[in-house]
Amino acid sequence: MEGLPFTALGGADEGGHPGPPPAAFALLAADGTLVGWSREAEALLGYPAAQVLGRPAADLLVSPYADRDGSDERRPDQRLRLDGTRSAVVDVRHRSGHTVRVALTLRPLTPASDGDSTGRAPSAVLMATELQGLRWWETRQAMLQGLVTQSPVALTIYGPGARLLWANASSVQELGGDLAASLGRSMTELFPGDVLTTQHLASPEDFVQQILETGEPVIDVHFRGRAPSDPRRERVWSSSYFRLLDGRGEPVGVCEQSVDVTDHYRAQQRLALLAEAGARIGATLDPSGTAAELARIAVPQYADAVLVDVAAEVFEGEEPKPVTAWDLVRVADSDGEPSRVGERVAYADGSSQAESLAGGRATADDAVAPTRLYVPLIVRGTPLGLVTFVRGEDSEPYDEGDRAVADELASRTAVCIDNARRYRRERTAAFMLQRSLLPRSLPELSAVEAASRYLPADSHLGAGGDWFDVIPLSGARVGLVVGDVVGHGLGAAATMGRLRAMVHTLAELDLAPDELLARLSDQVGRDASDGNAQGPEGSGAVGATCVYGIYDPASRTSTWAAAGHLSPAVVQPHGPVTFLRLPPGPPLGVGRLPYEGAEVELAEGSLVVLFTDGLVEARGQGVDVGLGRLAAVLGEQRGSSSDLLCAQIVAELAPDRVRDDVTLLVVRTRALDARQVAAWELPSDPALVARARAMAAEQLGRWGLDDLAFTTELVVSELVTNAIRHASGPIGLRLIRDRSLICEVSDSQHTSPHARYAGNDEEGGRGLFMVAQLTEHWGTRYMPTGKTIWAEQALPVP
């Protein structure tokens, strides 16, 4: 404090004086009579000198004085003892009548050598100060002394140019203990670092000068740097600044009050780090992505580099097994060598890394001042891998708080990696199930040239429930179907498999598209009521859409029906691109509205494109935009083959990662040549059975199929005879030479024929049984006008 104005360290007292409250003086004669009275005494008690001089000083006392030793002895003579220096706290009567408590000191004077004949010579001096003001001043002085010598708060005074003028003991300790060597140096030289709060962007020199000029204090500026006393350790201070004025009101400097908040700041940083880790780690559901997220979060605010090694089995979705130090794969490396990612990693036995994995606990490279922490990734007591947190030579070693953060980061990462492993296992299983349920290849048919594409969604939800199929039907016809199960995961894939199997079964019954969808919808509704359809929790299915059509290459007609699905696109030769106008139908399993079919004639070479909504739906655009883009591709590439057209559509409409499954089925229609079909209409007359056999044999001769004549005549005879016997009206007979020989007999009845064993005594009932034995396949399909019984025979090998 030496050399500093009093006001610079504490200001004036209650009376505005730059020091302690003024003392009142009085002189006493040997008999205790007042012989001297100062102006300060008059100001303190209100008595002018004329009223008190010559009076005993004891007359002014309210009660006998109490010695400083605490005694309160009453003295009958009421005289002040003048035989030594004494101090006391006494109550003195003010002229106005109230009491003033004062601190009083009595000091004897050395008597004059020649004496005093009047007996009124001063024998002692009496000093008094108001007690309250004195104690207030003494307390403030003690406080100031404590701030200078004992306070843990660092107090520093900077002058113009932010140069050091003075520092208290705590600040001197941070300066390295040598105040003289630091005086005159700038703040930047003494404490190199940076300001963490951004409300003041000026340099320290400008910062101090601004406060000197404006006098506006600045509170709670966080400053990070290194103190001269410990330049190796980075610390954080919370500092406040205010201007100091001298007794004339002129600025003499800026006082900086600093508190070391390093521990508090680091605790906040650790909490913020853990909160960020909880929000970001595990968002990708990918082991490598999770490890990379950990590295991005931890560097540089927690570590200078992070290495993450994971067991190879994790990438295959297998259950975790005890990991050895030589069976790891590097999945993240922020140490400047990304080429090492994906390489096998091996740690020697006895190394800190091996001990960490074997013991299931964190280890360090140095027990005293570690700069590397090895933390195992543990799930259910089993290590999945290892995380290495690295700090450079210029960074502080890891302490116990840092170790706790490392354990928490590794624990969260381990759980997320295990979740990614589980997801990968389920996703793989769902894709395998879905792939096994989808057609491995499309059949070679005379009716259509077909090609398909299936793109799974790039989503954490897993495999979807899209499916497609090309189903050979009787009479060289073909069934075309595309469906979409709502939901993803194993539940959706399983539901898709059931629906595809049901469509196959119903299609083999030769049901019309509207009737097939009605039966399929009923079954989906029953599955939902029985609990076979799972809820929308990300892995189940709650409904499905479907479009189904039948194309007949002999008549070049097609029949379609839709259950909540987008209509197929059609491109007729030399015609525009259109989308079939199908009667709307509800999704499968929703409601009881009937389905309606629509018949469309397709010229030979027409394109029919069936697809799911994932192809035409995109973020930020409606379905109409996607349908327009599809129509544009079809218009430009109509001459391409079905397979090439599939590739071009996918490249244009789904070039990048897709949000939903994409299923695409492209078919180009073919037509049977007139020479491949022979048809007759016969009256219902038993006498014409022989004629029907003869016409069939003659046609087989034209086709060069004489080897099949006997069997065909027998089939024709039995089927025509049954039609004449059980039906009325004209009977249709048709032979089709395709990949097989197909014989069809149509009538106007809807009764269902069936093969049976006839008794030994029965003359009939063996016709359909013989047909079933002589042909490869036979069956019945129904139409609004009646039914058709058909039978197929394999063509002879050339």
Describe the structure.
With 798 residues, the protein is an alpha+beta fold. 30% of the residues lie in helices and 28% in strands.
| Helical amount | 25-40%
Low-confidence runs (pLDDT<50, min 5 residues)? 1-17, 65-79, 534-541, 758-764
End-to-end gap: 121 Å
Mean pLDDT: 83
Number of strands: 33
Radius of gyration: 52 Å
The geometry reads as: rod-shaped
Task: Report on the biggest sheet.
Answer: 6 strands, antiparallel
Strand percentage, roughly? Answer: 25-35%
Number of helices: 19
Which labels suit this protein?
33 strands, alpha+beta, 798 residues, 6-stranded antiparallel β-sheet
Write the layout of secondary structure elements.
Blueprint lengths: L5 H4 L14 E5 L5 E4 L1 H7 L3 H4 L13 E2 L18 E8 L5 E10 L15 E7 H19 L4 E6 L3 E5 L1 H6 L4 H4 L4 H4 L2 E3 L8 H11 L3 E10 L2 E16 L5 E10 L1 H19 L6 H12 L6 E7 L16 E6 L10 E2 L6 H8 L3 E2 L7 E8 L2 E9 L9 H38 L10 E8 L8 E9 L5 E11 L1 H19 L4 H18 L13 E9 L4 E7 L5 E3 L5 E3 L18 E4 L5 E5 L11 H14 L5 H12 L8 E8 L7 E6 L6 H15 L5 H18 L4 E7 L2 E8 L19 H8 L2 E7 L2 E9 L4
Antiparallel strand pairs: 1-2, 1-6, 3-4, 4-5, 5-6, 7-8, 7-12, 9-10, 10-11, 11-12, 13-14, 13-18, 14-15, 16-17, 17-18, 19-28, 20-21, 21-22, 22-23, 23-26, 24-25, 24-27, 27-28, 29-30, 30-31, 31-33, 32-33
What is this entry, summarized?
This protein is an alpha+beta fold. Residues 1-17, 65-79, 534-541 and 758-764 have low confidence and may be disordered.
